[in-house]
Amino acid sequence: MINAGWTLVGGLSAQDGVFYQAIVRTGGVKLVDAGPNKLAIVKLVNDFTGLGLKEAKDLVDSAPAIIEGRTVGNLTRPFTEEEERELRSQLVEAGAKIE
């Protein structure tokens, strides 16, 4: 039985013992432009999302783009409010334009 406030992700069963806390999010961070320090932005996206460097670069190159959460295998877990604030702060500090 799954406790209230928890949800299974991606078809995993309770026997797998893998649970993620249910997080209600508003849609992630919108990267409008990487700015002059694109390499630093790619590295931040890589660090925060768990995407590979190529995938992180592709996401940054496709701006405007939504950075939605942390990828684990083929599953994506939405950012917590704290993670989203930290990502927003670091992106702006590195010179990116976000919404």
Explain what the structure shows:
By secondary structure, this protein is of the alpha+beta class. The protein has a single domain, classed as Ribosomal Protein L30, Chain: A (2-Layer Sandwich). Helix content is 34%, strand content 22%. The protein is built from three helices and seven strands; from the N terminus they run E-E-E-H-H-E-E-E-H-E. The strands form three sheets. Strands 4-3-7 form a three-stranded antiparallel sheet, with helices on one face. A two-stranded antiparallel ribbon has the order 1-2. A two-stranded antiparallel ribbon has the order 5-6. Helix 1 crosses helix 2 and helix 1 runs antiparallel to helix 3. The termini are far apart.
Topology of helices and strands:
Layout: E1 6-7, E2 20-21, E3 29-33, H1 38-49, H2 53-61, E4 65-67, E5 69-72, E6 75-78, H3 81-93, E7 97-98
Antiparallel strand pairs: 1-2, 3-4, 3-7, 5-6
CATH homology superfamily:
Ribosomal protein L7/L12, C-terminal domain/Adaptor protein ClpS
Along the chain, the helix and strand elements come as EEEHHEEEHE
Derived from helix and strand composition plus strand pairing, the structural class reads: alpha+beta
Spatial arrangement of strands, main beta sheet: 4-3-7
- Approximate shape: globular
Largest sheet: 3 strands, antiparallel
Number of strand elements: 7
Q: Approximately how much beta-strand content do the residues carry?
A: 15-25%
Query: Radius of gyration, rounded?
Result: 15 Å
Query: How many helix segments?
Result: 3
How far is the N terminus from the C terminus? 39 Å
Estimate the helix proportion, in percent.
Answer: 25-40%
Here the CATH topology equals Ribosomal Protein L30, Chain: A
| Average pLDDT reading | 80
Summed up, the domain count is 1
- List unreliable stretches of 5+ residues: 1-25
* CATH domain class name: Alpha Beta
